[in-house]
Amino acid sequence: MSAALQGSVGLNGNxxxxxxxxxQSLLTRAGMRLGLIxxxxxxxxxxxxxxxxxxxxxxPDGLVEPNATTWRxxxxxxxxxxxxxxxxxxxxxxxxxxxxVRTPPRVAANGNGGGGAPAIIGRATPPAAxxxxxxxxxxxxxxxxxxxxxxxxxxxLTSPANRVLLAKFGAPRENYSxxxxxxxxxxxxxxxxxxxxGPFRVTGLRPAVASLREVLSDVQRSIPxxxxxxxxxxxxxxxxxxxxxxxxxxxxxxxxxxxxxNGKLDVRGDNKVYHGLVLLAPFFNARGWYWGAGxxxxxxxxxxxxxxxxxxxxxx
Length: 316
Ligand SMILES: [Zn+2]
Prior knowledge:
alpha+beta, 12 helices
């Protein structure tokens, strides 16, 4: 069996390889399906954690922390063992491997405070750990949690600047307002498509719509009730960024989507985000989509094709 967990594993966790392998092995032993035990904490591992946590807590956070509830259950030190514990009714357990149950060493992985410190501290900040208020499972996806630390979001992904999209596809039209207007660029207009992506229909750039369908299909397999709660608040919307007269919204090229959960829209800019959006982000990130919670002005309902994904699309 594995030794004690050194750092957190899961959504925005430290995800050290050895810890991730330990968690993946234990999840598999517990009957959760997650594919390969490869030491990489991707969306399959995160959703396996979420599914495992459904039996333990009302609002799964997708994160296994050292000595916290999920880890204790995975290692057979669950509630039963705990309640029996006072007299030390765990004699069989030998133990230098069992660390006492106390404050998780979140930042402790940071041995030498120097150079690498900021990244580690940033990563260590748990997103949903600020316990969401209890609710039944149908409402918990719209429970508000603090926006995760921006440095932990969208790793390796870039939101494409206007000039990137202009160079690739040209301008959607000559001028923009705060309201949706038609695309006048004929070549770009020819790349738009209206299709079902699973839980809803959208109009957007054809390859972006295809990619979105794949993301949602991943979500459907892993967290079906979250998938069923989703609807669109718009993909192709040709206008300026809200409140700006110079910045064109990436929705104008049909490469971004705003999502509702249970028909509700997360409020932009309040630095609080729906729990369900936090769970969705790794699925989007895994297929090259950037989550709008990473913008300076938090826009958690918003997901858009990252720069590398855009580059992989055909030119008009
Ligand atoms: Zn948006």
